[in-house]
Amino acid sequence: MKKFGLMVLALLMIATLSVNAQSNKLAGTEIRVLAGSIPWTDYVKAKIPEFTQKTGIKVVLEVYPEEILRNKITVELTARNRDLDVYSMSPPQETMLFVKNGWLAPIDEFVKASPDYDIADYIPSALSGGEVGGKLYAIPLFTERPVLYYRTDVFAKAGLKPPKTFDELMADAKLLNNPSAKMYGFVERGAGNPAVTQFVTFLRGFGGDYQSRDYRTATLNTPEAIKAYQYYGEILRNYGPPGVLNMNWGETSNLFAQGLVAMRIDNDSQFGQVVDKNKSLVWDKVGFATVPAGPAGMGSCNVAPWALCIPSYSAKKAAAWEFISWATSKEMSLGAMQAGQFGARQSVWKNPQATKGLPADLVTAVQGNLGTKYSDERPVMVQVGKARDIIGTVIQAGIAGKTDAELKAIADKANAEFQQLLDQDYK
After folding, report:
1. CA angle 293, 285, 240 (to 5 degrees)
2. CATH numbers and ranges of domains, the chain
3. Residues 85, 98: contact at Cβ < 8 Å?
4. How far apart are CA 218 and CA 66, in angstroms?
5. How many Å separate Cα 306 from the centre of its chain?
6. Over the stretch 161-193, which tens digit does the pLDDT of each residue have?
7. Do 98 and 87 contact (CB within 8 A), yes or no?
């Protein structure tokens, strides 16, 4: 028994020495981090002294507005700057491009060597947004997804419950639409390029998508896609407000906050404006629900707008991962969630302490979406902006009420143009 005790003590000493050796190895290292001006960054910035005290790693954090950050990162990565160790990027917009350019270091081995990090806790579809070719390149900082915003008072008066299907959504929009009383049944983004990220929920609800599963083939003119354009166009044309063809999320949110719309679908991260008594005329009359399902099921996604990654040129990848694993740990994710940044870990959405400041039905709506398989709400490619412009022309044709033949011709033309971009990106 005495020998056993001595053996355990020896093993504990070896383990301690191993941890200290790793800690000593990284202590004194200085890493440079570029991040965007978002609430998550504000929260983490205040905690960095704790990280340095714990690890001995010094963090030089530079924070920039989104466009300035994107330009700065592009310049530094193009120059293969070895002085950059961690940066935040937008997976839907940039993962493919950055991997193609050789700007991202895979982090699978770091994750594998960190079992306590619990990578399985992440919302699967949000995490997959940072994957390319079976390799993981980025850790999501937060998520957002479309939800249904609806007027609880209007629904109660009409004896309605939140719609669960596209058919119910259309029927409710028709019933509640009353322009003479300045009440419109439904609103969504109608401006071409911005509409792409919201229209995809309807597209997938009808069984379509922007491209094939291997991303190489354009699918903008399939029968399923045509049905989606027609549906989206019909509900906005017949039961939406005037000028919807020029509306982005800001305009649709303002209309809802002014009490002029019965229903709206857009990202959950925008909920604050419509429940703020200083900004919304209906702040106490707002309900939330999971988006309705189409004939092919629910087509919504969990998107990670920003994620942390390690540039391939960094000479301090171990210290960079130490920072990322700390900044996105369960503890830090809980704190960031409490500070107002919607978490990418499933655990925060199941923790009452993390969600207690949110409307209960909003939390329920998000929880109902965590299992969706979709991680992207825009084409997966390098030339995302050009593709969105192309797709937007078909969406707007549907809203404008083009005939079936005209709509099909427009979709065929857009599909050919989109295919050219895909051929360039995936050659």
Report:
1. 55
2. 2-143+304-367 (3.40.190.10), 146-300+381-425 (3.40.190.10)
3. no
4. 30
5. 8
6. 999 999 999 999 999 999 999 999 999 999 999
7. no
